[in-house]
Amino acid sequence: MRRDPGVQMGAEMIFDIRQTKTGFDMEWQARVGDQDMVFIRAPFSRDCFLAEIQAKDYSQRLVFDPSDLSFGNKLKDRLSFRLYEDEKYIGHLVGNTRKERKGLFAAYPYYEYQYREALLSGYEVGFGRKGLYLCVYEGQEQIAVVEKKLSVTDFKDEYICYLLESRQYRKVIPFVIYYDTIQYGDVMERAVHSKKKDALNTIQKDLIAKFDRSFIPRVLEQDGIRPGSLKEEHKGCNNE
Q1: Distance separating alpha carbons of residues 172 and 6, to the nearest angstrom
Q2: In b/e form, how buried is each residue of 42-72, taking b as 16+ CB within 10 angstroms?
Q3: Radius of gyration of the chain (CA)
Q4: What 3-state class would DSSP assign to 172?
Q5: Which of 28, 95, 150, 156 is the least buried, fewest Cβ under 10 Å from its Cβ?
Q6: Is 122:135 a contact under the CB 8 Å cutoff?
Q7: By C-alpha distance, which of 27, 2, 3, 15 is closest to 185?
Q8: Cα gap 126→208, rounded to integer Å
Q9: pLDDT tens readout for residues 29-82
Q10: How far apart are CA 141 and CA 135, in angstroms?
Protein backbone atom coordinates (compact mmCIF):
# COMPACT_ATOMS: atom_id res chain seq x y z
CA MET A 1 0.00 0.00 0.00
CA ARG A 2 1.43 3.36 -1.02
CA ARG A 3 1.67 5.90 1.77
CA ASP A 4 0.43 9.46 1.58
CA PRO A 5 3.53 11.50 0.68
CA GLY A 6 2.18 14.45 2.64
CA VAL A 7 2.72 18.15 2.12
CA GLN A 8 4.43 19.88 -0.76
CA MET A 9 7.67 21.64 -0.07
CA GLY A 10 7.31 25.40 0.06
CA ALA A 11 10.03 27.88 0.98
CA GLU A 12 11.87 25.46 3.28
CA MET A 13 15.60 25.13 2.71
CA ILE A 14 16.38 22.35 5.22
CA PHE A 15 14.88 18.88 5.33
CA ASP A 16 15.73 15.42 6.64
CA ILE A 17 15.92 12.08 4.86
CA ARG A 18 15.69 9.08 7.18
CA GLN A 19 15.79 5.44 6.24
CA THR A 20 12.79 3.83 7.91
CA LYS A 21 13.06 0.25 6.68
CA THR A 22 15.96 -2.08 5.88
CA GLY A 23 16.27 -5.72 4.95
CA PHE A 24 14.89 -6.94 1.64
CA ASP A 25 12.68 -3.93 0.94
CA MET A 26 14.08 -0.50 1.79
CA GLU A 27 12.19 2.69 2.57
CA TRP A 28 13.10 6.32 3.28
CA GLN A 29 11.09 9.35 4.36
CA ALA A 30 11.91 12.97 3.54
CA ARG A 31 10.48 15.37 6.11
CA VAL A 32 10.36 19.10 6.71
CA GLY A 33 10.26 19.41 10.49
CA ASP A 34 7.49 16.99 11.54
CA GLN A 35 5.70 17.00 8.18
CA ASP A 36 6.13 14.26 5.56
CA MET A 37 7.36 15.57 2.21
CA VAL A 38 8.45 12.63 0.02
CA PHE A 39 8.23 8.87 0.47
CA ILE A 40 10.77 6.53 -1.17
CA ARG A 41 10.46 2.76 -1.51
CA ALA A 42 12.86 0.25 -3.08
CA PRO A 43 11.34 -3.25 -3.33
CA PHE A 44 13.84 -6.10 -3.22
CA SER A 45 14.99 -7.51 -6.57
CA ARG A 46 17.88 -9.80 -7.45
CA ASP A 47 18.13 -8.42 -11.00
CA CYS A 48 18.00 -4.64 -10.62
CA PHE A 49 17.48 -1.74 -8.22
CA LEU A 50 14.37 0.40 -8.38
CA ALA A 51 13.59 3.25 -5.98
CA GLU A 52 10.13 4.77 -6.31
CA ILE A 53 10.16 8.41 -5.20
CA GLN A 54 6.64 9.68 -4.54
CA ALA A 55 5.70 13.27 -3.73
CA LYS A 56 2.33 14.96 -3.74
CA ASP A 57 2.80 16.63 -7.10
CA TYR A 58 5.31 14.42 -8.93
CA SER A 59 6.90 10.97 -9.00
CA GLN A 60 10.41 9.76 -9.87
CA ARG A 61 12.08 6.40 -10.38
CA LEU A 62 15.77 5.72 -9.79
CA VAL A 63 16.79 2.57 -11.67
CA PHE A 64 19.98 0.51 -11.84
CA ASP A 65 19.90 -2.39 -14.30
CA PRO A 66 23.36 -3.53 -15.52
CA SER A 67 21.74 -5.78 -18.12
CA ASP A 68 20.04 -2.83 -19.85
CA LEU A 69 22.28 -1.86 -22.79
CA SER A 70 19.84 0.57 -24.39
CA PHE A 71 21.97 3.54 -23.26
CA GLY A 72 25.25 1.95 -24.43
CA ASN A 73 27.47 -0.98 -23.50
CA LYS A 74 30.45 0.89 -22.04
CA LEU A 75 31.25 0.23 -18.38
CA LYS A 76 30.14 3.75 -17.41
CA ASP A 77 26.78 3.20 -19.12
CA ARG A 78 26.26 -0.12 -17.35
CA LEU A 79 27.19 1.33 -13.93
CA SER A 80 24.87 4.33 -14.25
CA PHE A 81 21.70 4.76 -12.23
CA ARG A 82 18.98 6.24 -14.44
CA LEU A 83 16.43 8.77 -13.27
CA TYR A 84 12.89 9.08 -14.58
CA GLU A 85 10.30 11.70 -13.65
CA ASP A 86 6.65 11.00 -14.36
CA GLU A 87 7.85 8.09 -16.56
CA LYS A 88 10.17 10.29 -18.67
CA TYR A 89 13.95 9.74 -18.65
CA ILE A 90 15.64 12.87 -17.29
CA GLY A 91 19.19 11.88 -16.34
CA HIS A 92 21.73 9.54 -14.75
CA LEU A 93 24.12 9.22 -11.80
CA VAL A 94 27.47 7.44 -11.83
CA GLY A 95 30.77 7.43 -9.98
CA ASN A 96 33.77 9.04 -11.65
CA THR A 97 37.31 10.33 -10.96
CA ARG A 98 38.72 13.83 -11.43
CA LYS A 99 42.28 15.15 -11.48
CA GLU A 100 42.87 18.92 -11.64
CA ARG A 101 46.63 19.02 -11.04
CA LYS A 102 49.73 16.84 -11.01
CA GLY A 103 51.02 15.07 -7.94
CA LEU A 104 50.37 12.30 -5.46
CA PHE A 105 46.75 12.10 -4.23
CA ALA A 106 45.76 14.69 -6.85
CA ALA A 107 43.01 12.47 -8.26
CA TYR A 108 39.82 12.17 -6.27
CA PRO A 109 36.43 10.47 -6.67
CA TYR A 110 33.19 12.29 -7.31
CA TYR A 111 29.65 11.56 -8.47
CA GLU A 112 28.52 12.68 -11.90
CA TYR A 113 24.85 13.61 -12.08
CA GLN A 114 22.99 14.64 -15.24
CA TYR A 115 19.58 16.13 -14.39
CA ARG A 116 17.73 17.29 -17.50
CA GLU A 117 20.06 19.90 -19.07
CA ALA A 118 21.97 20.50 -15.82
CA LEU A 119 25.27 18.77 -15.03
CA LEU A 120 25.81 18.27 -11.30
CA SER A 121 28.71 16.89 -9.30
CA GLY A 122 28.76 15.43 -5.80
CA TYR A 123 31.82 15.29 -3.56
CA GLU A 124 32.05 13.21 -0.37
CA VAL A 125 34.13 15.03 2.25
CA GLY A 126 34.84 13.57 5.68
CA PHE A 127 36.36 15.08 8.82
CA GLY A 128 36.55 11.92 10.92
CA ARG A 129 34.23 12.04 13.94
CA LYS A 130 33.49 15.73 13.29
CA GLY A 131 31.33 15.26 10.22
CA LEU A 132 30.65 13.60 6.87
CA TYR A 133 29.23 15.65 4.01
CA LEU A 134 28.08 15.28 0.41
CA CYS A 135 28.72 18.60 -1.34
CA VAL A 136 26.50 19.11 -4.40
CA TYR A 137 27.47 21.47 -7.22
CA GLU A 138 25.67 22.54 -10.37
CA GLY A 139 28.49 23.59 -12.64
CA GLN A 140 30.74 25.75 -10.44
CA GLU A 141 27.93 26.77 -8.07
CA GLN A 142 27.30 24.87 -4.84
CA ILE A 143 23.57 24.26 -4.46
CA ALA A 144 23.42 21.91 -1.45
CA VAL A 145 25.28 20.26 1.39
CA VAL A 146 24.01 16.92 2.69
CA GLU A 147 25.20 16.04 6.19
CA LYS A 148 25.20 12.35 7.15
CA LYS A 149 24.49 11.46 10.74
CA LEU A 150 27.54 9.48 11.87
CA SER A 151 25.75 7.34 14.45
CA VAL A 152 23.59 4.68 12.76
CA THR A 153 21.02 2.49 14.51
CA ASP A 154 19.75 -0.75 12.95
CA PHE A 155 21.37 0.11 9.56
CA LYS A 156 18.99 3.08 9.13
CA ASP A 157 20.98 6.03 7.85
CA GLU A 158 19.89 9.64 8.36
CA TYR A 159 20.75 12.81 6.48
CA ILE A 160 20.16 16.56 6.76
CA CYS A 161 19.87 18.42 3.46
CA TYR A 162 20.76 22.11 3.37
CA LEU A 163 19.63 24.07 0.29
CA LEU A 164 19.98 27.76 -0.52
CA GLU A 165 17.03 27.49 -2.91
CA SER A 166 14.12 25.17 -2.17
CA ARG A 167 13.46 24.51 -5.87
CA GLN A 168 16.56 22.30 -5.93
CA TYR A 169 15.04 19.59 -3.74
CA ARG A 170 13.84 17.49 -6.69
CA LYS A 171 17.46 17.14 -7.76
CA VAL A 172 18.86 16.52 -4.30
CA ILE A 173 16.54 13.74 -3.07
CA PRO A 174 17.45 11.21 -5.83
CA PHE A 175 21.12 12.09 -5.26
CA VAL A 176 20.86 11.20 -1.56
CA ILE A 177 19.07 7.92 -2.29
CA TYR A 178 21.74 7.03 -4.86
CA TYR A 179 24.54 7.93 -2.44
CA ASP A 180 22.98 6.01 0.44
CA THR A 181 22.41 2.95 -1.74
CA ILE A 182 25.91 2.65 -3.18
CA GLN A 183 27.79 3.67 -0.02
CA TYR A 184 25.59 2.41 2.81
CA GLY A 185 23.06 0.12 1.14
CA ASP A 186 22.82 -2.65 3.73
CA VAL A 187 20.59 -4.84 1.59
CA MET A 188 19.23 -7.87 3.48
CA GLU A 189 20.76 -6.55 6.71
CA ARG A 190 18.44 -6.58 9.70
CA ALA A 191 19.16 -5.77 13.31
CA VAL A 192 17.49 -4.75 16.54
CA HIS A 193 19.17 -2.06 18.65
CA SER A 194 22.45 -2.34 16.74
CA LYS A 195 24.65 0.74 16.56
CA LYS A 196 27.65 1.77 14.47
CA LYS A 197 29.53 4.94 13.63
CA ASP A 198 30.61 5.95 10.14
CA ALA A 199 33.77 8.03 9.81
CA LEU A 200 35.80 9.17 6.83
CA ASN A 201 38.97 11.26 6.79
CA THR A 202 39.45 13.00 3.46
CA ILE A 203 43.10 13.74 2.64
CA GLN A 204 42.93 15.19 -0.89
CA LYS A 205 43.23 18.99 -0.64
CA ASP A 206 41.24 19.58 -3.83
CA LEU A 207 38.42 17.46 -2.47
CA ILE A 208 38.42 19.13 0.97
CA ALA A 209 38.17 22.48 -0.81
CA LYS A 210 34.76 21.43 -2.15
CA PHE A 211 33.36 21.79 1.37
CA ASP A 212 32.41 25.44 1.87
CA ARG A 213 32.35 26.00 5.65
CA SER A 214 30.10 29.04 5.25
CA PHE A 215 27.36 27.19 3.33
CA ILE A 216 25.46 25.58 6.22
CA PRO A 217 25.64 28.72 8.44
CA ARG A 218 24.22 30.77 5.53
CA VAL A 219 21.30 28.35 5.10
CA LEU A 220 20.65 28.28 8.87
CA GLU A 221 20.69 32.06 8.98
CA GLN A 222 17.99 32.23 6.32
CA ASP A 223 15.87 29.34 7.57
CA GLY A 224 16.35 29.25 11.37
CA ILE A 225 16.33 26.24 13.72
CA ARG A 226 13.13 24.35 14.53
CA PRO A 227 12.80 21.70 17.27
CA GLY A 228 12.41 18.08 16.27
CA SER A 229 14.75 18.16 13.27
CA LEU A 230 18.08 16.42 12.84
CA LYS A 231 19.70 19.77 12.16
CA GLU A 232 19.18 20.76 15.79
CA GLU A 233 21.34 17.83 16.88
CA HIS A 234 24.15 18.97 14.60
CA LYS A 235 23.98 22.75 14.89
CA GLY A 236 27.13 22.81 17.03
CA CYS A 237 29.25 20.88 14.51
CA ASN A 238 31.68 23.15 12.70
CA ASN A 239 34.39 20.64 11.77
CA GLU A 240 37.13 22.73 13.24
Answers
A1: 18
A2: beeeeeebebbbbbeeeebbbbbbeeeeeee
A3: 17
A4: helix
A5: 95
A6: yes
A7: 27
A8: 8
A9: 999 988 899 999 999 888 899 999 999 999 999 999 988 888 888 888 888 999
A10: 11
